[in-house]
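[Structure tokenization] protein backbone as discrete codes
[Encoding] learned vocabulary of local backbone shapes
[Protein] chain in single-letter code, fold in tokens
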Amino acid sequence: MTEPTLTYDDFFRLAAADPAVVGLVLIGSQAHEGLATGRSDHDLWVVLADGAATGLERFREHRTALLDLVFVTLAQFRGAGMPGFCRYALARGRVELDRLDGEIAAILAAKRRFAPEEAFQRSAETLDDYMNSLYRSLKNARDGFALASRLDAADSVGALFELLFAMDRRPRPYNKYLEWELERHPLPGWDARGLLDAAGRIAATADTAVQRRLFGEVEARAREAGHGAVLDAWGEDLALMRPQG
């Protein structure tokens, strides 16, 4: 059932009065300070006690320009985004209602950090993805395929941020929230503004000198993190990716 005029405040009052609702979590722009605009809706996760029945089920498919609702049981909420695309959104979600003495907040906090083993595996995989796109971009630039070089360079930036956040045991932000995240939660050892400027230039122009310079920094940090085997598997091709001269 869709009620186009149902607002966040309207639904909050209904949910707060329903004991089947054990948690409400706001995600998206409204949960990121300073990013909401006049066009931003409220994306709200409604966490129900396992096995509970509620009249609010009539809003299960509710999605309007004002309010999007996602209904999950507590068990489903624990596993949401683990892994999954919504992990970052939940990791930065804002608890609006927690009837479980902080358990909803604790579940969100657990989504903010990968386990060490998961982080290492993700880092190894995304390092290889980053190097693959980087190598293709540089090779295409060398051989005169300018458009292909720019497209591969843009691909490499996405993989790069997957890598850098995984190395810090964090899910990568969606592009809209990347600057917000880096300004408020910097990656250790990286200058946020410098990193963003380099990424923007690479994506826009495929500047080979910038790509190589950035890879030089990434290689050093990846080796420190124990990913030498991934790097060395590229053999002589590393020479094309490293800073020249």
